[in-house]
Request: fold
Amino acid sequence: MARLHLFDLDGTLLHGSSAPVEISRQLGLAAEAVALDEAIGAGLIGPPEYATQVHALWADLTEAHVEAAFTSAPWLSGIEDVWTRIRRNGDYCAVVSLSPSFFVERLTGWGAHAAYGSRFPAVPFTEPVDPAGLLSSVAKVRIADRLCEEFGVGRTDCVAYGDSMSDRDLFQVVPVSVAVNADQHLTGLATHSYVGRDLRDAYELVCAAR
Reply:
């Protein structure tokens, strides 16, 4: 039976950072984005408030800024290698992230079968954020179920990779999970744990356990 590998983005594929921070860095506003990441991580604000505030930070955002942020971001090594191996094995790989879809979806160019993020207006912004398009930890499970149906697999065939409590709900419904550079709350829910900067090593943990 094929397996579906589900990857978080912020703090997982991106080491020690998030897409909003890297995007904001291009505008000279990284400190403001870090503060928002800390606020949502501590539960002081929710996804709608977070999205509204980063949308306001990005009033001058252009596609060139987004491209520069994607290119210079601190990615883990070996992402494309891992996704090539997954495809070669007849398995599937997808990215599901709370970060803006206009950043997340670029990862299909690296070999992901699918990439889902929170829906933001097109860049440059001329419209506000629609709260209905924002993802949450619960939404990650719904998307995973949709992908299972699309690829003809079940939850029991899924492997989840994540780093924070936004991955908690997904980790609780799949049989195999890898906490990647994760906080202690998520590590306790995972079947495997990896600390480092090479996705190939994290992937080997689940290959060995197959």
